[in-house]
């Protein structure tokens, strides 16, 4: 076969580095030197992290294992971010440089933490330093890990040179890892942690310096933009054209430059085909078509379908990575309790046992590539496919898990024989740690199959635009696996006694057997997905056997690429050839066996502990089990990892070029027969949105804005939803006072949107207002997180049932109120401003309506998540973690919003919307007493146009403001709107405000009653039985979720069922005032329901003699009774809330459209403040609301609210009778005409 080097490649298909005069082997030493230094630095702190946390930072063993998994997960997730940043925004050189500097900073902090006594226990400052150091080091490592590999490959234009580079890259990677796992860990354990980390700092600094020295020699590629844009465009185009008829002729689809295409899109995921369907309104002014957000090529549609098809296979690797992550961390814990001596003087560091897995990977890479693959090919005349590699990896890993379980069973047997149960956690079992090597070796073998097989599969089958990201998908898989391992470990700890702090007292072998079951079920899931999957690129190559070698790089093997062998033709797991997916499956199996091996080793160790009769109660007490046991499962892990990891990346590089060669490169666009254009609604020019001539905006901005809404709303829910519980249980504030503070805060952030809307419309654009207020909200959330975690910023914990609780100090109050004020101010400034800013991005009313629907859907979805998941974390795990999740959500939302800046349509501030109102009042006051004219031509109209009728007869004293007099004329004889002369339209706008204000005010008491019920319901829930089953307890703040769910469901039912039925019966639409009236009535029934439930609760209190008991006493009555009135409130809000928004938006003047939607927020804010005043009045005048509601009469308060709601409903009916629509009636008259 011809040499690969002689294969001709079309000029337009060659790699981008072809025309770069730099790069090549000159850069090799710089990049490999940087890889060596950075990998050594990473191994210096990653490899021995558990031992450092346990022995130096005094963190309990299982907690240290959890932290280790979090760090490993983060290091594996961050490469995705690094790859996207490098491809989309900055070049790889700058990404590697910055992240390497961040990693260096983290290493320096770790070194300081290990050497400075004040940064180590027993003081309490160290957690902040430790976690900051780990976070910086993780981010830095993740940002460089895969980015520097792709940057190195970019320096070489030829595929064989890229293959050679990848070979040396992974050789250097594993060599540096081996050095870290042996020499550096030995120094840390035997000499000094400071020296060990210091060597890592030196290695990091040298690697960064070497990398920077080569800057003048590198070939720098320009960022190509986000690789996810084409995916988003397909989804946006398919959504826009949903419901369109699908064509069956390929000529009806857009193929881009592929003029020779003869077939349309495939039948799978047919709803996406519309994205490539050409319509008349997709045609440009010159009659041609081009790929855009409304029209995509068939190739782009098929690329997205491939992603949908391959994702199930990708997901099968998550649990595989999870089992490996758990075995790695648990093996180190086992090693700490076993005899790790090799001879009388040398002791293997516990963290070094992972080197057996690394060595097995390195060895398996060589053996599989040089012996097994050629042998397989000679026997079957076919190459090993990715699916076959993955399948083998699955099987081998199952054996590894069985091995781990067997070793642990033996360890536990020794533990019991030596009676080590109940001894100090560091008691050593007299069982050799080398037993652990067996499952680790098996894991290595499994990873040698499935890990390269997966990368080969993703690189070959992913779309071209995602080639750089496809390799990092493995890193994402590993990261998710580490995080899931944390969840499984935590679940096992909570549900069983298998994982105590001292594993000698637990049943770690049961954990390994559990992992075996998980691995087996995951293997079955993989087989199902693999059987349903069909290759795309591999099959294309197989169908072209006579193509030159450059078109046939479907193999995941170095040897087959060097020998220029032909690709494999089989299509699924059961065919004769081994595919990348099958090799990955093999890795899965190896991993399962590795976990089993770990379980067996731990069983043996515990057995030794149980056989010991007496052991001195000190940390140096060793269990007589040799650490050689630990080594026995590491080869499985190493062999699994090393199988074809190198070959997979080679295959990725080759396949990318081969795929590009198979695509025709004609630049002649296909023409199609004209179609009838879709009927669109014409919009009068004076009513079109202001962004009519804006070239930005549109659905491109949708994901940015909705992502920001999701993040900011999650952040808001993280502190508003559970605020009362936080104030009562953490800050020791009395219950009624906490309810009052809650109402003030909710009222504040409901009032602030008015300020945000006015600022956005009058002085600054909405973009800057949202950005600044979101930053303020983030600052407030950070202060709340600190207040909940730092002991000096909160009072001592009050024991439940105690009468004497220490109140917060002045400093603590100052921090608390400052945090709440900043968070409220920031939330209020973004809440409605971002909604109007999002609507400004769309020119058509129907698109604006769609945006608002998704906006409110996202709003309620985020609120539901906050009211369940985040509140559960706060109540059951940690307040600091709950608020920390809010900080993260706020930061992510802000970043997502800022990332879309260049896509937004930015509208200029139009001046204060209240200026015209002030001008009308000023002009009417100036012309008071003037005779009113009955001739329409005597009045001033907008743009000096003629009108049939003058101003209306209502509020006639304002008409003089539009009456023209001689002294209103300018020097040129014309009239213009000013502070002395207004238009009739401006006068009528002010009259409309005067007419609608009484109706608006009727909503204040409605909001007041709802606000009081919401806050008082939380206080009721705190005193009731909130258990669902024996283990789960509903957080008190989560009861408000039922109201939100009822609102969401009722809005859907009203919109899709009740309104159409009403229109069919009456032939008229339900008007906003009717919807509001129905909401009033339903909410009165909700008040009655709340009063009835509270009456029953107080009866139970008295029957059980709970009067006079401490405030935390729980009434034996299910909290689910509270659900009924909350559901009724939600249904009522489903009527009156949308009705009020529609009324104000339709009837308010055009100049106040932005402010009209915020009027609802103002209504709610005043309602919360008024609820505070009513609560305070009731407390001062009666004894109904003591600090312990069990001693009060909360039912009387609810009956009082019922009376208030009924009187307010009468006031609403009176105002509604006097009100007459302006815009709605005009619209109905036009429609009937």
List keywords for this structure.
single chain; 1233 residues; mainly alpha; Growth Hormone, Chain: A; two-stranded antiparallel ribbon; two-stranded parallel sheet; 10 strands; globular; transmembrane transporter activity; transmembrane
Quick overview:
The chain crosses the membrane at residues 28-54, 66-86, 93-116, 128-153, 165-187, 193-214, 313-336, 348-368, 427-449, 470-490, 510-533, 699-720, 740-760, 767-791, 811-830, 851-873, 879-900, 999-1022, 1034-1054, 1075-1093, 1113-1137, 1158-1178, 1198-1219. With 1233 residues, the chain is mostly helical.
Low-confidence segments, given as residue ranges, are 1-19, 540-577, 613-621, 641-693
**Termini separation (Å)?**
81 Å
User: In order across it, which strands form the biggest sheet?
Assistant: 1-2
Give me the CATH superfamily of the largest domain.
MFS general substrate transporter like domains
Strand tally: 10
Family: Belongs to the major facilitator superfamily. Proton-dependent oligopeptide transporter (POT/PTR) (TC 2.A.17) family.
GO molecular function: transmembrane transporter activity
Keywords: Membrane, Transmembrane, Transmembrane helix
Pfam family, one: PTR2
What do you see in this structure?
With 1233 residues, the chain is mainly alpha-helical. The protein folds into six domains: 13-217, Up-down Bundle (Growth Hormone, Chain: A); 229-303, no CATH class; 306-528 and 575-661, MFS general substrate transporter like domains (Growth Hormone, Chain: A, Up-down Bundle); 702-798 and 805-903, MFS general substrate transporter like domains (Growth Hormone, Chain: A), CATH 1.20.1250.20; 915-988, no CATH class; 995-1232, Growth Hormone, Chain: A, CATH 1.20.1250. It has 36 helices and ten strands. The strands form four sheets. The protein has a two-stranded antiparallel sheet with strand order 1-2. Strands 3-5 form a two-stranded parallel ribbon. Strands 7-10 form a two-stranded parallel ribbon. The protein is globular. Residues 1-19, 540-577, 613-621 and 641-693 have low confidence and may be disordered. Residues 542-561 are annotated as: Disordered.
